[in-house]
Amino acid sequence: MTTDYMEKMNRSRFWTSMLGNMGLTILKGSVGYISGNKALLSDAMYSAGEVSTLITHRFGNADKEPITESSTSRTVRFGGFLALIIPLLVILGAMQIAFSSIYVMVAGDLEPPQLMVLIIAFIAFVAREIWFQYEWRRSYKDKQAIHMMGRNHRLALYSSIIVLAGITLAMIGKEMDYSLLLYSEPVAALITSGIVIWKGYELLASYFLGHKDKEIRQDTYDYMETVQRVHGIVTVEQINAYERTSGIYVDVRVTVNPRMSVAEAQETSERVKVLLTGRFEQVTEVSIEVLPYLSEYPYKSNYELAERESTTLLQ
């Protein structure tokens, strides 16, 4: 897959997941609020937590991909604000549901859930599973996305099963006139709210501890051409340039002749740094990784002096 295709697919995955989770939040939240069912409200808060996870990973996570030049500074600032405020709102909402569930259990004011609540919870569960299977098959080549999706899906699956089990058991308790089973619905709401609070705490921790300056990717053609001219470089394996508040940061990975000594390789890397910072005033920091060039085929590098090769033809 090309880089452009991967960027478009990631953007499409982000917005479709955002809209899907927002739809589930509105559906479950509205039905849960009207019916007064706390388990369904806690499940709605979990979907809202999924929305906050997407926003935080895109705008507030230090491990995300650098922001492209097409992203405006206003969009970045607004995204960073959402990455901070939405997890806080989700945590507050989950805490309110948890306290309300505890109060209901202590007071003994238990009301059996309505059939519509179970239907909506089941529909939301099936819709989430179908969407996950679709995204899983569409992203099977992106190992990082699959790993993150699998981890998030396990937690979402557990919370949905807990909510469905709590609602179902409460309805069974109503039909069998067994009041003890009515506690299963607020217990499910309490457990799900605890999961939401824990996830929100993780998001806030990653935001505050891992947040760093946003980086804007720069064109690397001139830097690549300069590095290739350095005496001793065989190939330039990777080069990235990012704009920071202090200037341009260049990250380079090069290969050198494997017959070089460690001191010679270090000297070559220093020449790369000096040349980049000297030729380009905007470059303030250079990180370079030097690796030995390994290949099964013969090669020539600018490290070797041009010498006339002796003929090896049989006389």
TrEMBL record:
It holds the Pfam family ZT_dimer. Its main location: membrane. Keywords: Membrane, Transmembrane, Transmembrane helix, Transport. Belongs to the cation diffusion facilitator (CDF) transporter (TC 2.A.4) family. InterPro entries: Cation_efflux (IPR002524), Cation_efflux_CTD (IPR027470), Cation_efflux_CTD_sf (IPR036837), Cation_efflux_TM (IPR058533), Cation_efflux_TMD_sf (IPR027469), CDF_Transporter (IPR050291). NCBIfam families: CDF (TIGR01297). This is Cation diffusion facilitator family transporter. It comes from Paenibacillus urinalis. It is a multi-pass membrane protein. Residues 16-206 form the Cation efflux protein transmembrane domain. Gene3D superfamilies: Cation efflux protein transmembrane domain (1.20.1510.10), Cation efflux protein, cytoplasmic domain (3.30.70.1350). PANTHER family: MITOCHONDRIAL METAL TRANSPORTER 1-RELATED. It is found in: Membrane. Residues 224-293 form the Cation efflux protein cytoplasmic domain. The chain crosses the membrane at residues 81-103, 115-134, 155-172, 187-209.
